[in-house]
Amino acid sequence: MSSPFRTQRRVEFRDPDAAGIMHFSAFFRMMEEVEHEFPRSLGASVVTRDNEGVVSWPRVHADCDYTGAVRFEEVLDIEPRVEPLGRSSAAYAFAFTAGDRPIATGRINVVRCRVEPPRPLRSIPISDELRQRFAPYVETP
Asked: How far is C-alpha 84 from the chain's CA centre?
């Protein structure tokens, strides 16, 4: 894997709960933001259009485990990793740290789908072009 993609998010006023620590749901919002930012950094997007219509990556699973706490205005470092790609699926694992403190680990599983309302979503293979763009960031088992 080449040098990892890293980004940061600041804990904003809206993020803490009544106890003053970042609410669990804010981690999911940040994972989604990074899930969009990372492909953009590779010249891709989570929603595209091709000659057949719209292609997107709906989530089929999301989870997050918490090992530390952060408060208003602290800065989180977020490092997404791409797990081995399936035929039409991808999994992102997220590591959240604040300085040298581990804060949380999360995961989002997505499936590349053709969007044709009102028809149900239909999974489609990940293109060779996308596989090449993601290849430097895919973790080997």
From this structure: 14
pTM for the full predicted model: 0.91
Distance CA 74, CA 11 (A): 6
CA gap 104, 66 in Å, rounded = 4
Single-letter code of the amino acid located at 111: V
Are the CB atoms for 76 and 40 separated by under 8 Å?
no
- Which tens digits make up the pLDDT trace of 89-141? 999 999 999 999 999 999 999 999 999 989 999 999 999 999 999 999 998 77
Q: Which domains does the chain have, with CATH numbers?
A: 7-137 (3.10.129.10)
Half-sphere exposure of 100 (CA within 13 A, CB side): 0
